[in-house]
């Protein structure tokens, strides 16, 4: 009868070998999860980064302007979802500074209509 041993080396106790095996498996799963997150990450954010600088700047300015003119100080129920979408989009720009993030987060925290 063939007996399978979990020991990597005969001098390593069985418990230590199991702990090592579990640690390796957990590490491999974490690496796969990180790779999946990176590869399947936000396509919209990647597309924004790929825009030519002038188009990117115009889109960012228009998005922030929408947040300030249409959505502030508090959007009506009819435009609340539009404002949430604009806020989400604004946060995807690296140009979004502290004021932009504060405004966007405020709109994202409002209850859905």
Q: Characterize the biggest β-sheet.
A: none
Count of helical regions? 5
How widely separated are the two ends? 68 Å
Low-confidence segments: none
> Can you count the beta strands?
0
How helix-rich are the residues, as a percent range?
55-70%
Can you offer a commentary on this structure?
This protein is mostly helical. The protein folds into two domains: 1-41; 43-108. The chain is built from five helices and no strands. The chain has helices at 14-39, 43-50, 53-71, 80-91, 98-108. Helix 3 (53-71) runs antiparallel to helix 4, helix 3 packs across helix 5 (98-108) and helix 4 packs antiparallel against helix 5. The longest helix is centred in the N-terminal third of the chain and has 26 residues, at 14-39. It is elongated.
Task: Please summarize what this structure is.
The protein has 113 residues and is mainly alpha-helical. The chain contains 5 helices and no strands. The protein has 2 domains: 1-41; 43-108.
Descriptive tags:
113 residues; mainly alpha; 2 domains
SSE diagram, text form:
Layout: H1 14-39, H2 43-50, H3 53-71, H4 80-91, H5 98-108
Helix pairs in contact: 3-4, 3-5, 4-5
């Amino acid at each position: 009868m063939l007996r399978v041993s979990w020991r990597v080396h005969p001098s390593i106790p069985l418990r230590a070998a199991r702990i090592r095996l579990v640690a390796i498996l957990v590490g491999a799963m974490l690496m796969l999860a990180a790779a999946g997150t990176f590869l399947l990450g936000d396509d919209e954010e990647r597309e924004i980064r790929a825009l030519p600088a002038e188009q990117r700047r115009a889109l960012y300015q228009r998005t922030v302007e929408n947040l300030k003119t249409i959505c502030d100080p508090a959007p009506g129920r009819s435009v609340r979802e539009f404002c949430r979408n604009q806020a989400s989009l604004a946060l995807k720009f690296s140009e979004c500074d502290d004021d932009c993030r504060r405004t966007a987060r405020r709109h994202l925290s409002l209850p859905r209509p």
